[in-house]
Amino acid sequence: MIYRRCDQRASGTSGVIVAFSCLYRFFGSVICHPRRTVYEYLGIRMNRRIGAVSLITGFFLGWFLLPRFIGGRGFESSFGPLGVTRTSKEDFVIKGDHVTILSGAIHYFRVVPGYWNDRLLKLKAMGLNTVETYIPWNMHEPIPGHYEFSGMLDVRHFIRLAQKLDLHVIIRPGPYICAEWDLGGLPGWLLHDPNMKLRTTHPPFLAAVERYFDRLFPILAPLQVSYGGPIIAFQVENEYTAYGNDSAYMQAVHDVGVASGGCGYSPMLFIIR
User: Angle between the 203-220 and 247-259 helix axes, to the nearest 10 degrees?
Assistant: First the structure.
């Protein structure tokens, strides 16, 4: 998975600063006081060998260990709250709290709305703190230009219910979702064009995706964690490498999602390769 995250840059920066500081204090003191080590300069009687070991230890702490503790939070405090940052393989910082994401799937479009709350409660009772769901394009745009976001397709209401139960949300909007769904959620009307090339950079296909995302993401954008909502991540496409290897297509879909206002730099944005 490729995460949109900046904690690595913050970690590296903090490490460089600490390491450089150690070098500056050591060599600076030697230059200014050639007969004294940095520790003598500070009034601490230690020999040069121990000083060298300590210098190396400080460099190690600054480059490797310190970033693990302050990397994510340091970036947030310096550049504003991003909502979600990654601090380790399993640990994330969400609005300042360290969280291990434990996620389960509930596809709102497969469950009667009257049962949404009950199913979300059951998911939470399993010990999970996050719900993820696909969004089927063919149900939300059954006819070109005609969009449905009410009743069983009221994805906003589903997400708000999850938030009331203190659940995080991961959204998987496609355009292709697989999900054992007809044509992977792609609308059948796309095939009315005999020259249509699905899941490619074919301009008519990308134009249709852009029109759909322009209606979908304005619903999702205000629900991002950085705006007080529960959405912590978006997934672009699904299991694409089992179908093709056009990295330009994956980048194009990513860019359309960002331009539609859904991703930006607020939650994570990740892609399943």
Answer: 40
The residues, any chain, with a CB within 8 Å of residue 75's CB and separated by 6 or more, are: 6, 7, 9, 10, 82, 85
CA distance 62 to 69: 11
Alpha-carbon span 122 to 83, nearest angstrom: 26
Edge-first strand listing for the sheet containing 97-99: 84-86, 92-94, 97-99
* Residue 49 in this model has a pLDDT that exceeds 70: no
Neighbours of 99 (CB within 10 A): 17
User: Is residue 232 a contact partner of residue 101, using CB atoms and an 8 Å limit?
Assistant: yes
* Type of residue numbered 10: A
For residue 154, what are the contacts with CB-CB under 8 A and spacing of at least 6?
Answer: 113
Torsion of CA 233, 239, 241, 243, to 10 degrees: -140
Average pLDDT taken over every residue of the chain: 77
CA distance 54 to 39: 10
Would you say 201 and 139 are in contact if contact means Cβ atoms under 8 Å apart? Answer: no
CB 78 within 8 A of CB 261: no
Which position has the token pair 């460099």? 59
Report pLDDT for 14: 42
pTM, two decimals, is 0.69
